[in-house]
Design a protein that fits this description.
Blueprint: H1 16-19, E1 33-34, H2 46-57, H3 68-80, E2 86-91, H4 93-104, E3 111-116, H5 120-129, E4 132-137, H6 146-156, E5 160-164, H7 176-188, E6 192-196, E7 217-222, H8 224-228, E8 234-239, H9 240-246, H10 257-268, H11 270-292, E9 298-299, E10 306-310, H12 314-323, E11 326-327, E12 329-330, E13 341-345, H13 349-362
Parallel strand pairs: 1-11, 3-4, 3-5, 5-6, 6-7
Antiparallel strand pairs: 2-8, 7-8, 9-10, 10-13, 12-13
């Protein structure tokens, strides 16, 4: 059959900028020690697995989610110590919340600003929604370049400025004074600031106790690093009137009954997850000390469940570790500041020993 070349193909209906994009890549981890995605390596104890299974089995999967989701909103508000006058919005992971913010703020000429290197979804959400993205490079030691940030805010007047606290993939907390100056500058331009606390369970401090000082600052978290990466549950807090407007773009029933019940169960047993986080913080200290003794390796202090290291040859080291069955993340091509850098997720004690041995052998 002869094809009429005048008729466009279905792919031609897809935006050209999307066709030129790269999809978010997930590495194949089958049979590997998986230390590439900042997951909590600990599973639920068997007795809690059994209890959760009973609860999930009793759910009415034939019905749309109901008011039970409001029980979860209240439980998360209590857990996070949400200030009075604030409200909370749930997302299918933080990724959905980031996308919904871009959708809500998509007015002519709007832009999104964030330090770089940073979480890739900030820029991707802007591009997918047709917004301009402004990335402001960090300093060589991955600190905020306050002067450059303030200049970019004054020039572009971004609708949304993201500040990850701590940052991904650098794992550090930024200077409080610089953050406050940036928040003040964004407020003077009428924009929003989103403090992204995805790694809050491992951080030495949080912005939650200062959020009420500003009417234009939102605080976003996820239960992925809490220990529920597979559940996909993110949440965002902000002043009630502001959250009511953003919530209008949220799809109905975006949180499944399974996600909701798993999250409620985890919060009821939060002592278990807190103990897991403390274990990982202890493992982080061990890893930082051990990495500091490896010749040719530079590592940065971490307030997350990952450590950024610079090695002489990131590609060679990554492939060498992978050949030994240890999967980490090669971030060296994400940004010029990350040249020859690997991101190491903190695992169990046994996994961390395997990772150190593979790293040392692959240098």
């Amino acid at each position: 059959m002869k094809i009429d070349t005048r008729i466009p193909t279905p792919a031609a209906r897809i935006r050209q900028d999307i066709q030129s994009m790269h999809a978010y890549a997930v590495q194949d981890s089958a049979g590997m020690v998986k230390l590439d995605a900042m997951e909590n390596p600990h599973r639920l104890p068997p007795e809690l697995q059994a209890l959760l299974g009973q609860r999930l089995g009793a759910l009415a999967l034939n019905r749309y989610p109901d008011g039970r989701v409001n029980d979860l909103r209240q439980a998360l508000a209590d857990y996070a110590q949400m200030p009075d006058g604030f409200d909370i919005m749930l997302g299918n992971g933080s990724d959905e919340l980031i996308s919904l913010l871009a959708l809500a703020c998509d007015v002519p000429g709007a832009s999104i600003l964030s330090p770089l290197p940073g979480f890739v979804m900030y820029a991707m959400s802007a591009q997918l929604q047709g917004l301009k993205f402004i990335g402001v490079p960090l300093t060589a030691d991955f600190e905020l370049d306050e002067a450059a940030m303030l200049a970019a805010i004054a020039e572009h007047k971004p609708a949304i400025t993201y500040l990850a606290y701590p940052n991904n993939p650098t794992a550090n907390l930024w200077d409080d004074r610089a953050i406050e100056n940036i928040i003040r500058a964004v407020g003077q331009q009428g924009g929003l600031v989103v403090m992204d606390e995805a790694y809050q369970p491992f951080a030495s401090k949080s912005y939650i106790h200062r959020i009420a000082q500003h009417s234009h600052v939102l605080l976003m978290r996820t239960l992925s690093k809490f220990g529920l990466a597979g559940v996909r549950l993110g949440y965002m807090m902000g002043p009630k009137a502001l959250m009511a407007e953003i919530d209008k773009v949220r799809p109905p029933y975006n949180i499944s009954v399974l996600n909701c019940e798993c999250a409620l169960f985890a919060l009821e047993n939060q002592a278990v997850f807190k103990a897991q986080a403390l274990d990982l913080i202890g493992q982080r200290a061990m890893l930082l000390e051990a990495l500091g003794r490896l010749p040719g390796v530079k590592c940065w202090n971490s307030d997350a469940n990952m450590i950024l290291v610079r090695v002489p040859n990131a590609a060679q080291t990554f492939e060498g570790m992978k050949a030994q069955g240890v999967l980490v993340k090669n971030v060296s091509k994400m940004h010029s500041l990350l040249a020859n850098c690997l991101r190491l997720t903190i695992g169990t004690a046994d996994e961390n020993l395997l990772m150190l041995a593979a790293l040392e052998k692959s240098l």
